[in-house]
Write a structure and sequence with these properties.
The protein contains 8 helices and 8 strands. The protein has helices spanning 42-50, 81-95, 113-122, 151-155, 171-179, 195-202, 234-247, 266-285, and strands at 22-27, 69-71, 101-106, 127-131, 161-166, 183-187, 206-212, 249-256. The protein has an 8-stranded parallel beta sheet, with helices on both faces.
Length: 304
């Protein structure tokens, strides 16, 4: 299988950095994982899997790629999590522009802190929607305040958060959830029938979406560092994201914690499909994926 440097393996004019509605930033960072390593390989695996996706999106009836998807070179940094976060925050801030959305591919969940901070600075009043198995609300973990287990605690410094799919957390994290009005949590064992409506009601008009792939059930996404049973289904996640995008504006996103498994591609393929569904939901809401928008349809000569 050849290396893929652009999401969907797109070519010009669909990858024009100046006009693309979405910029994808691969970030193969892994420094604080506490169970199984391998998430640094996640971004490249997602890009490879994306090369076999169909361009047409059956949910929106459009070709979201027409809106333009530019994939940057991978962002690499050898520093500690704090220095890494500061550097990535600056890098993402440089990618942001009016009506442009930056989507980050991780890497461990620490990857999300910098993009959340950069996007919050560009969109004051933004909220964060977290799909995850873990609360990630620790003040510090393993000697670091920027561990993968502290991501949402750091996010709270810049935005309120809504959590969906949580099913693994510490007692102090549970206490924080029950006492901090900036946090709304929907536990995996007690998801309401009207989940989408309640999530939307809890979110401000602009939203950053962070998806830890372990938020999904390991029967569908086994390739992750800390799999937890009893997770969300792919179709339910797509339905939630689509509903949120219709009523709120998703201004940034990331998909993290993919850990490729030898001989399998189902997790990275699921992640690639999910990224494209997120892009489809974003650009369709913005009117950027109509049949006559900007670019012709990308080539349709892929192998089935």
């Amino acid at each position: 299988m050849h290396d893929v440097n652009a999401f969907l393996d797109l070519e010009a004019p669909h990858t024009d950095a100046a006009t693309a509605a979405v910029r994808i930033v691969p970030v193969p960072y892994e420094r604080t994982t506490s169970f199984q390593q391998g998430t640094a390989e996640g971004p490249a695996a997602i890009l490879r899997a994306s090369a076999d996706l169909e361009y047409y999106d059956e949910l929106t009836g459009t070709v979201p790629a027409r809106a333009g998807i530019h994939t940057t070179a991978p962002f690499t940094h050898a520093g500690d999590p704090v220095a890494f976060t500061q550097a990535l925050r600056t890098h993402v801030a440089d990618q942001l522009a009016a009506d442009r959305v930056v989507g980050v591919l991780g890497g461990e969940h620490t990857v999300s802190i910098g993009p959340i901070e950069a996007t919050a600075a560009a969109h004051p009043g933004m909220g964060v929607l977290q799909i995850d198995a873990h609360a990630d609300l620790r003040e510090s973990f393993g000697g670091s305040t920027h561990s993968h287990a502290c991501v949402m605690r750091r996010a709270l410094d810049v935005a309120p958060i809504v959590q969906v799919g949580i099913r693994s957390l510490s007692e102090p994290e549970a206490d924080r959830i029950h006492t901090d009005e900036r946090i709304t949590t929907f536990f995996a064992h007690d998801l309401p029938p009207d989940l989408s409506d309640r999530v939307i009601d809890a979110l401000p008009p602009e939203v950053y979406l962070t998806v830890d792939i372990d938020g999904l059930d390991p029967s569908e996404a086994p390739g992750t560092g800390t799999p937890e049973p009893g997770g969300l289904r792919y179709r339910d996640v797509v339905s939630l994201v689509s509903a949120v995008a219709r009523k709120r504006r998703i201004v940034g996103f990331d998909v993290v914690e993919v850990r490729p498994l030898p001989g399998q591609m189902n997790t990275e393929f699921l992640a690639a499909r999910l990224v494209y569904k997120i892009i489809g939901a974003i650009v369709t809401r913005g009117g950027m994926a109509t049949p006559d928008w900007r670019h012709p349809t990308p080539t349709d000569e892929r192998d089935p």
